[in-house]
Design brief:
2 domains; Rossmann fold; globular; alpha/beta; DNA polymerase, domain 1; 8 strands; two-stranded antiparallel ribbon; 10 helices
Amino acid sequence: MKELICFDVDNTLLHSDGPHAYAFNEAFVRSGLKRVSLIKLKKSLDGRKAEAIIKKFFPHLKKEEVADVEKIHHSLIKKYSYLARPISKNVVRVLKKVKESYDIGVVSNSSSETIKELLTKAGIPLKLFKVMIGREMVRHEKPAPDELVKAAKLSHEKVKVMIGDSIFDIQAGKAAKVLTIAVLTGKYSSKDMKKEKADYILKNIDVLPAILEKGKLFK
């Protein structure tokens, strides 16, 4: 039986700051709030939950108001999903190579619908993934381990490693007691990832196949 390698989505497999930032801004305007600088918005897209991003810019909002903005943001992702791009031209090749030895899944604090929409628009085939875990499928999002626990339950396989660009991915992996690989394609530095005690730190996922072939990982 193969083991499961889980990937984060945003800024790990694809560039998605554009879709999320534009969707947030339109959601803010529709909710009677001020538009936020795209630069500031994109900087805040560091793996934290949507509600935390909304509260960062509008701390006065009540819980139910935050939930309403979040719901509108979610509904607008499809409108801006054409802006999604693979993190590199090698993403599909990398995933296919990893799939030769492991099953692969995605775990994300976005909804399952958003995951599928962004991956599709970025040209990453959904059929590559054995499981896809979105926020609505668990009680607690990353940095809690729930998404990885759910992936293991649905795949009937042991999760071998968590790969992601944010400290929340690493924290979730640690909480789930699996190996963690940090990729430096998001907002966090190598120093940040070392502080979280990631087991491995890679520039991006492009180097995964070469490392796997050399047997340097997962022993």
